[in-house]
TrEMBL record:
The keyword Metal-binding applies. Keywords: Cell cycle, Cell division, GTP-binding, Magnesium, Metal-binding, Nucleotide-binding, Septation. The lineage of its organism: Bacteria, Bacillati, Bacillota, Clostridia, Eubacteriales. It holds the Pfam family MMR_HSR1. InterPro entries: G_ENGB_dom, GTP-bd, GTP-bd_ribosome_bio_YsxC, P-loop_NTPase. PANTHER family: ENGB-TYPE G DOMAIN-CONTAINING PROTEIN (PTHR11649:SF13), MSS1/TRME-RELATED GTP-BINDING PROTEIN (PTHR11649). Its cofactor is Mg(2+). Necessary for normal cell division and for the maintenance of normal septation. This is Probable GTP-binding protein EngB. The gene is yihA. Belongs to the TRAFAC class TrmE-Era-EngA-EngB-Septin-like GTPase superfamily. EngB GTPase family. SUPFAM superfamilies: P-loop containing nucleoside triphosphate hydrolases. Residues 22-195 form the EngB-type G domain. The keyword Cell cycle applies.
Length: 215
């Protein structure tokens, strides 16, 4: 899969400042530190396009990345970070809620969860919202390199059950550290975008079975 052009468009706090909604958007949601920025960098094959940090709560604005002049990947601020004031938490929640409920160009919301942990209450709420609003409910299990193969399989099943994912919804393990799994994410997103955009043919590939190389 080749990305011809991936541009960081900017960080925005207020709806009025967001780019004109003239292209489909795919939003990435998840709790702080789940690995959203790392995954975006891996997907776009860039080291530092999205800022990553071991300190949770780095992403406090909504970041837009324009891909191939055809759609936006949208990095939402991570929720569930305990060490910020209640006021700040509410303002993040408000920002995410406003974006998700009012953005006319939103086509899909992808939920990221850390594969090592059971989904939090907020993850479950987010997934419920995603389902209720008619999105496909692609779930990404991050940091797959941290678990053995058998433990990962077990955890994927647990996450699926706890989120109440329907049979047809996909859960995809990824490791940004090992650069594994992002092709499958692209495939899942391409399925959503194909009817709406002129995506390049390079995206049109059979989904390969991903073999994560773990210790
Ligand atoms: N082992 C491992 N660590 C990862 C992986 N992805 C991210 N990390 C680490 O997890 C931490 C958080 O990653 P980020 O990508 O900044 O997470 P984020 O979800 O954007 O965080 P916020 O800015 O808080 O929303 C960093 O220390 C990353 O290096 C992965 O696939 N494997």
């Amino acid at each position: 899969m080749i990305i011809k052009e991936a541009a960081f468009v900017g960080s925005f706090v207020k709806m009025e400042q967001y780019p004109v909604p003239d292209m489909p958007e795919i939003a990435m949601a998840g709790r702080s530190n789940v690995g959203k920025s790392s995954l975006i960098n891996t997907m776009l094959n860039r080291k530092k396009l999205a800022k990553t940090s071991s300190t949770p709560g780095k992403t406090r604005t909504i970041n837009f990345y324009k891909i191939n002049q055809t759609f936006y990947l949208v990095d939402l601020p991570g929720y569930g970070y305990a060490k910020v004031s209640k006021k700040e938490r509410e303002s993040w929640g408000g920002m995410i809620g406003t974006y998700l409920s009012r953005r006319s160009s939103l086509q899909e919301v992808v939920l990221l969860v850390d594969c090592r942990h059971d989904p939090s209450g907020e993850d479950k709420q987010m997934y419920e919202w995603i389902q209720q609003h008619g999105f496909g409910g692609v779930v990404i299990a991050t940091k797959a390199d941290k678990l053995s193969r058998s433990k990962l399989t077990q955890q994927l099943r647990r996450i699926r059950n706890q989120l109440g994912m329907p049979k047809e919804a996909v859960i995809l393990p990824v490791s940004s550290l090992k650069k594994e799994g992002s092709e499958a994410v692209w495939e899942a997103l391409a399925d959503k975008l194909k009817p709406l955009t002129d995506l390049p043919d390079e995206l049109d590939r059979d989904l390969e079975t991903i073999e994560l190389d773990r210790q």
